[in-house]
Write a structure and sequence with these properties.
The protein is an alpha/beta fold. It has helices at about 1-50, 75-85, 105-110, 145-160, 185-190, 245-250, 265-270, 280-285, 300-310; strands at about 60-70, 90-95, 120-125, 170-175, 180, 195-200, 200-205, 205-210, 210-215, 220-225, 240-245, 280, 290. Helices cover about 35% and strands about 15% of the residues.
Length: about 325
């Protein structure tokens, strides 16, 4: 009898041990499932956040017009822009160099960035009497006039070769010294036919932000510009884009050497729209997606001394 009781007791403890192992395994498995589910949720969140910065590739072609000229920071600035454009599949880059001929530097940059099939490389030299000299301040003479007009000529011809105004597209003047969020191009893609889209621009005109001012019906009433607010369109070149059918219907719309300082934007827009008909974007003009930044002029005193001795630090390199 005692032996039988001892056997039953051993069986009882064995069952308890087995049940304990099963319980521990079950809890461990549940934690593993929870951990897997949590990891999946975190991955999905990261993907959603990333997608928020990459616009939908669908939509009208955006012709991004970039005037550029040879200077020490040219390649650096164009490289920065190329990285943005690579993320926005519906952008076609129109680069216009202030030169007699296109350069190998720009050609190489387009090839290395993989954008040679989504770009065109043009050249248009600024007339000597409108060229800045020596230490002239950059505001003394209008810049980019010849290059932007050359790009507009190309866009209009390209439209003519592809059915005129039948295919919806948008033109944006994308200077190479600004900073752009990829989200901006998702907004530009919303521009309707026969419309000029507008949005805020950061760090411009002596303000933290210049922006369109809307009424309760989301109609543009004007702009909060502090610099020469009497201009017909007191906004920055980075703060608007144009439905290309407007450019097709108004071939006289272009830039001019004859207008006052700060009036280039007004010069082209006066042919295309009025303030109240502009299309507000960027969440009713409450978000800043482009900034009027400028690269600091590099200090190259040591390089100048080297050049005087007949040498260059960048011999054999493209900087």
């Amino acid at each position: 009898m005692n032996q039988e009781i001892r056997m039953k007791t051993k069986h009882f403890y064995a069952v308890l041990v087995i049940l304990g192992f099963l319980l521990i395994y079950s809890l461990s498995s549940n934690r593993g499932c929870d951990s897997t589910e949590q990891a999946a949720l975190e991955l999905q969140s990261l993907q959603d956040n990333r997608a928020a910065f990459i616009p939908n590739h669908k939509g009208p072609t955006i012709y991004a017009i970039t005037p550029t000229y040879a200077r020490p920071v040219q390649k650096a600035e164009l490289t920065r822009l190329s990285h943005v454009i690579r993320l926005v599949p519906n952008v076609f880059w129109v680069i216009v160099e202030d030169a007699e001929h296109t350069s190998n530097l720009v050609t190489n940059l387009l090839m290395r960035s993989g954008l040679q099939d989504r770009s065109v490389q043009l050249s248009a030299k600024t007339p000597a009497n409108f060229k800045l000299q020596g230490k002239d301040p950059n505001w003394l003479k209008p810049r980019g006039v010849e290059q932007r007009n050359k790009a507009l000529e190309w866009v209009r011809q390209h439209m003519a070769d592809n059915g005129g105004r039948e295919r919806h597209s948008v033109v944006y003047f994308m200077d190479d010294d600004n900073t752009y969020s990829t989200e901006l191009f998702a907004e530009i893609s919303k521009i309707e036919r026969n419309k000029v889209g507008v949005w805020p621009v950061g760090l411009v005109g002596g303000l933290m932000v210049e922006k369109p001012v809307l009424n309760r019906d989301e109609i543009v009433l004007g702009f909060n510009s502090a610099w020469r607010p009497e201009r017909p369109f007191p906004l920055d070149m980075a703060g608007f884009a144009i439905s290309s059918d407007l450019l097709w219907d108004n071939p006289q719309a272009q830039f001019s050497y004859e207008v006052e300082r700060g009036y280039q934007e007004s010069e082209i827009l006066r042919h295309l729209t009025i303030v109240h008909e502009m299309q507000p974007l960027a969440n009713k003009c409450t978000e800043v997606l482009v900034w009027h930044t400028r690269t600091e002029t590099p200090k190259l005193d040591a390089e100048k001394q080297l050049v005087k001795s007949g040498k260059h630090s960048d011999t054999g390199l493209e900087v």
